[in-house]
Amino acid sequence: SDWECVNDTCTIISNANNIQHLFSHERQPALWHAIPSFEELQTAWEEKHDLPKYSIYTEAIAGALMKIRKYYNKFDNKPIYALALVLHPYYKLTYIKMAWG
Asked: Record's superkingdom (predicted)?
């Protein structure tokens, strides 16, 4: 139904919206959110990409994933993002070891 498509679209977009809100904090630095947020969004959309429920959005999700990967790859040239995770009082090296081995 049309409303089901609207709800599915809202679900897909809400993943990006939730990540965007993480970067909207005015009171605290958000740089350390960058890598985990990109990975979270990529994982959410990769899961949706393969679900039959979202099959009509496959092409759009694939395009969005290409864009995410393009910008995620730029982190390799900017070590400040990984450094922000290392300097974070909670994460330190834990996230890097857990996510990247």
From this structure: Eukaryota
